[in-house]
């Protein structure tokens, strides 16, 4: 199946570059472009893309507001944030707004394409290096998120799995670390989604941080 992508960025050159990149890939298709958040919301309703590749800083309705509008509409579209992490203080807000993935603009093009496919498939996996920066951002905010989130109903094994998800490990890496099958690792992650009300792995990372299972140095403990 072809993954239908909506490009959202206020810089035409960025959109043009992404469009050319995706045009050479047989399983991805650009179905629209938007230069503002408001236009992104409107086009999402009209063309119903599988994935919106969303910039955060745009004039008028920004990427966070647009992400919230898209994800709360109840449609099948998922939002994948593409931003400059080092100078963007709104990443946490975007994830809270329902973004299913997180990319930085200096990532390799192949990684961006792979992330689009992952999000379209209903999953989200943050690379360990990005996870480290994400956790560090949370920890150094003037008003950091509380670290006492209750893990009601979470078993000891699920707590271990959540810790490893928070460190950026994939299901295969979790299985290797805990000496369990990949299917078992996936089952634990699925139960964590349900018990914690998490939308995807991105939000499990947030849950792991808020529960105090990982910190600024946590993702590096591999």
Automatic annotation (TrEMBL):
InterPro entries hit by this protein: CheY-like_superfamily, NreC/VraR/RcsB-like_REC, Sig_transdc_resp-reg_C-effctor, Sig_transdc_resp-reg_receiver, Tscrpt_reg_LuxR_C, WalR-like
Residue positions where 4-aspartylphosphate is found in the record: 55
Keyword DNA-binding: yes
Domain HTH luxR-type: 147-212
A molecular function GO annotation: DNA binding
Gene3D superfamilies, A to Z: 3.40.50.2300
Phosphoprotein recorded as keyword: yes
Gene Ontology BP annotations: phosphorelay signal transduction system; regulation of DNA-templated transcription
Protein's UniProt name: LuxR family transcriptional regulator
Classification lineage: Bacteria, Bacillati, Actinomycetota, Actinomycetes, Micromonosporales
């Amino acid at each position: 199946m072809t993954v239908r992508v909506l490009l959202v960025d206020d810089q035409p050159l960025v959109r043009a570059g992404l469009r050319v990149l995706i045009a050479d890939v047989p399983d991805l298709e650009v179905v629209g472009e938007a230069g503002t958040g408001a236009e992104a919301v409107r086009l999402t309703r009209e063309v119903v893309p599988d994935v919106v590749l969303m910039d955060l800083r745009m004039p008028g309705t920004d990427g966070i507001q647009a992400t919230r509008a898209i994800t709360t509409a109840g449609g099948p579209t998922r939002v994948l944030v593409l931003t400059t992490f080092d100078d963007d203080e709104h990443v946490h807000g975007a994830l809270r707004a329902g973004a299913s993935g997180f990319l930085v603009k200096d990532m390799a093009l192949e990684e961006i394409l792979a992330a689009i496919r992952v999000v379209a498939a209903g999953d989200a996996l943050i690379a360990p290096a990005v996870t480290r920066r994400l956790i560090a951002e949370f920890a150094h905010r003037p008003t950091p998120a509380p670290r006492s989130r209750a893990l009601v109903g979470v078993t000891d094994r699920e707590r271990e799995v959540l810790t490893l998800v928070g460190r950026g490990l994939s299901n295969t890496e979790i299985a290797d670390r805990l000496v369990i099958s990949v299917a078992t690792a996936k089952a634990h992650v699925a139960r964590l989604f349900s018990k914690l009300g998490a939308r995807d792995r991105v939000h499990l990372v947030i849950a792991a941080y808020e529960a105090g299972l990982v910190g600024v140095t946590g993702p590096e403990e591999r």
